[in-house]
Amino acid sequence: MKKLYYYILVLSSLTGATAVRGQDSVHCSAAFQAYPSLNEVEFIAFDSTPGVLHHWNFGDGASTSTDSNTVFHHYAVITTYLVTHVVIDSARHCQDSTSQYVTPGPNCAVSVSETSDTLRHRYTFVASLYSMPGAIDSVSWTINDTLAGRGDTLRETLTGGPYTVCAHLRTSDGCQSDACITINPQDSVPSGPPPPPDTCSISINEKVNPHRTNEYRFSVTDSVKYDSITWSIQSPNSGLIGPFYGKSFKYTFADSGYYLVQVTARERSGCPVAASVFVQIDSINNGSDGAVATYPNPATTHVTLAVTLTNASTFTVRVYNSMGGLAVSRDQTGYPGTNQVTVPLGNLPTGVYYIQIQYGNTILKSKIQKL
Questions:
Q1: Residue 229 class from Cβ within 10 Å (0-12 exposed, 13-18 middle, 19+ buried)?
Q2: End-to-end C-alpha distance for the chain, whole angstroms
Q3: Could you tell me if 82 and 50 lie in one domain?
Q4: What does pTM read for this prediction?
Q5: In a shared domain, residues 8 and 94
Q6: Within this chain, do residues 44 and 32 fall inside the same structural domain, yes or no?
Q7: SS in 3 state form for 218-254?
Q8: pLDDT digits (tens, 9 = 90+) for 329-350
């Protein structure tokens, strides 16, 4: 009867567009990441436990089954597809499935920063660009939907307002990306001598943890004290992670790929500045310093922990809030190998939480942000 249920589960996933949920997803995770490159898309499943069977429905009528957590698929037409992934682990007697929309095509991104001489209403807008693969064809600028210029930099004298300034990136292989910023200058230009030049400057300092190559600490190097500093991370699938606040913050990347890390800041008397840097994560290294891999991080409804055991064992998962109060506690039966443990967070308020996993005398720790 159990084999028949698995067969029905796989058949339903490979022939339909709707995600199928197995009866037991505690020890399995069907979560995956898609990395498009033109018509070719690489799919990487989070669950890389040996012996797990992966079933893929690519949404274009094609499907495959494999024991590898990585597959490639070529799409004839670039459009949006609903991709379904089913995992079955007969050793741990569990199964899980999930679906997400995937759009093949090139990968590119643009962001806009702005500096200004507010007394003379002179504004400079700079587009930070990223394109892989392919070359950048053009960047065009619009102000309130009217073409204003081309190139990486736009300089304008603006009074009144408000104005919405947008950069539009187009690449030779068909990738498009847009970013906008809104400003609202004063209605009149004051007379008098020109103000002294701004002395603000900002740059990003990045430092990787030598024991965990996917863990970074980002900080700003500046010549003045800023009233507010805001960070964000652009992920490979164009998702925005953040915001984060403060002069520095630490972030653990859950997947390999290219990430655009951006920071904006403003000093009390004005002087807004921005900077960005690209980070390439080649592989995920959980290290050996007592930390446990967690994803996604930041999280919203749940977080998944990767716990590796040499023997079958029962371990305890505890989640503490920033004040040290116990928010979640649960016991879990583990099996030899990597165990995927899903902890629900939907009922917890936003903030920073600390996770502790204990089995025997071993304690693993992690820190997450709940959005």
A1: buried
A2: 42
A3: yes
A4: 0.31
A5: yes
A6: yes
A7: EEEEECCCCCEEEEEEECCCCCEEEEEECCEEEEECC
A8: 888 888 877 788 888 888 889 8
